Amino acid sequence: MCVKRQLGACVRRHRAALAAARALQACFSAPTFAQFAVSLVIICVTAFQLASQTSNPLRLLAMGTYLLNMSFQVFIYCYSGHALAEQVMCRSDDRNNTQWRLPGGEPLLCVQSHEIRHLQLITDVSLERE
């Protein structure tokens, strides 16, 4: 009975975490994607201007610094997303090595693969929304 209660508490916490993730995604997906897209456009325009401006060294330095800053901002978004996805995959791989089974005899892998599919769905939907 104690295991059943603990499992129920884990399920409730997991559902609460998924609800929080959905709420965060609803709040931040569109603005973050818009900022990412605008940053990419700014990088392209600044690089074009930088390539065509050769007369004023001070302007070249300012535009080069701005280009570097915008590139770093895009790098932060990409690196954070990649690190999160990698962390989830590593933890899932660690959990998949266990021999635990659900009461119906199904391996615990079914529950964990839901977690991975959910993360993948979030990233795919976030990038494909227009």
TrEMBL record:
Location in or out of the cell: Cell membrane
Keyword match Membrane: yes
GO cellular component: plasma membrane
Membrane spanning stretches: 21-48, 60-79
A Gene Ontology biological process term: signal transduction
InterPro entries: 7tm6_olfct_rcpt
Tagged with keyword Transmembrane: yes
Membrane topology: Multi-pass membrane protein
Coiled-coil ranges from the UniProt annotation: none
Molecular function terms from GO: odorant binding; olfactory receptor activity
Key words, A-Z: Cell membrane, Membrane, Olfaction, Receptor, Sensory transduction, Transducer, Transmembrane, Transmembrane helix
Main location: membrane
Protein name: Odorant receptor Or1
Native organism: Eumeta variegata
Record lineage: Eukaryota, Metazoa, Ecdysozoa, Arthropoda, Hexapoda
